[in-house]
Amino acid sequence: MRFELFIAARYLRAKRRQAVVGVITLISVIGVAAGVASLIIALAITNGMERDLQSRLIGSTAHVSLMRVAGDGIRDWRPLLEKLRHVPHVTAAAPGLYGQVLVSRGVRSGGALIKGVIPKDEETVSDLLQSVKVGSAAELEPENSESAGQQVSESASQVSGSRAIPPIVIGSDLAETLGAQVGDSVLVTSPQGELTPLGLVPKYRTFQVVGIFKSGFYQYDSSYAFARLTDAQSLFSEPDLISVISFKVDDLYNADRISRVIEAMAGPGFQTTNWMQDNRELFRALKLEQVVTFIVLALIVAVAALNILIALTMMVMEKTKDIAVMMSFGVRAEQVRRIFLMQGLLISVIGTVIGLIAGYALSWMGGHYRFIHLDAQVYSIDYLPFAPKLWHAVLVGAVSLGVSLLATIYPSRSAAKVLPAEALRYE
Q1: Span 210-223, mean pLDDT?
Q2: What PANTHER family would the database entry show (predicted)?
């Protein structure tokens, strides 16, 4: 062990003449540990929020969506769908028909976005139908059909004939709002009504709930519903029309580039959006929150560093005689300065290690047991996620040690300026 480190460790363990110096040193260690642990937990939470929101958004929505610019829907879509399935980096494609509806059961009602789908295709671009917790999405499969082409070409009357009441799958929060369970019937009303002698009358149709999905993402669980594509077309009086073609790609972070290729292949009159464009503001806000949280909680480490400065300053005053004796034996001023620098470093290292252990332990417990629950209506997810990363330890440790070392500069310089003759004159 180097001479300076040996003396610094002895000073740190030695019994104090003034108890207050030892108390302040202990407070410094606890302060550094608390600051480091808080930073690790805060970064784990913000990273967990970003990770969970991104994974759920990506799992619940398509990577790329193609729509008509005019917004009047896509007709003769089958050849276009087959053509775009062969675009490089596209791994799956599925047609869909969106529409805003009112879903009611008795006196209860709620707005919903219903999507007409071909289940086998939809499951390749979205995980929502795979998150059915009660019932089964298999009920959405058209009966007596051999291929996807035959499925979507069936007329609404043929579908209605094969099943008296068409099936629907709804989100768990929407089901709770309606008080609906699997097997119950709900009335779906479309604002795109029919023209009658009495004027425009909203069109409605009874559906049977065959499945309830729970994605954990409130936006979808509270307002999404799935029906067969032919049933949705019949409800909206739009035979053989879709509003969107959804795509899954092999590289999430190249979705923007791939979407431009799809748009060019589709030709004029089409436009694409991707998951990064749709959620840019959300992830930008999460990044900003992470930076602000780091800066604010780093002030805890700064306060702990002030305690280190006070403790070392008082220790220099307490050890003035010892410093003078060492210097009279030939210890250089640079060595005295390094003694107190290392003493401050030891305080910081001990506090940082304790803080890292506590921070990662609490983050692991929070992520494993999910004991902190959130209001899904406010935060979109129903629990507080923790996702600590190893590089967080490097970042937080570097900040903690750097700030603490800055706090040791003044007391270490003061110790190096002690004059042995002056310090020992009255001893």
Answers
A1: 89
A2: LIPOPROTEIN-RELEASING SYSTEM TRANSMEMBRANE PROTEIN LOLE
Task: Give pLDDT, residue 330.
Answer: 84
What distance in Å separates the CA atoms of residue 108 and residue 110, rounded to the nearest whole number? 7
Partners of 201 in the beta sheet? 194
Record the tokens describing residue 129, joined without a space: 């139908």
Shortest CA distance to 380 belongs to which of 179, 221, 224, 274? 221
CA distance 250 to 163: 38
Q: Which residues pair with 211 in a beta bridge?
A: 135, 169
Please enumerate in sequence order all residues whose Cβ is within 8 A of that of 275, keeping only pairs 6 or more positions apart, or say none. Answer: 57, 58, 61, 62, 63, 64, 252, 255
The answer to whether 270 and 68 are in contact (CB under 8 A) is yes
Burial 364-379 (b: 16+ CB within 10 A, else e): eebbeeeeeeeebeee
pLDDT confidence of residue 209: 96
**What's the pLDDT tens digit per position in 161-209?**
444 799 999 999 999 999 999 999 999 998 876 666 666 677 889 999 9
For the chain, the domains span: 3-56+282-424, 71-268
Which residue carries 């780091």 as its tokens?
Answer: 294
Burial of 89 (0-12, 13-18, 19+ CB in 10 A): middle
Q: How is residue 51 written in tokens?
A: 């990770």
Question: CA-to-CA distance for 38 and 356, rounded, in angstroms?
Answer: 9
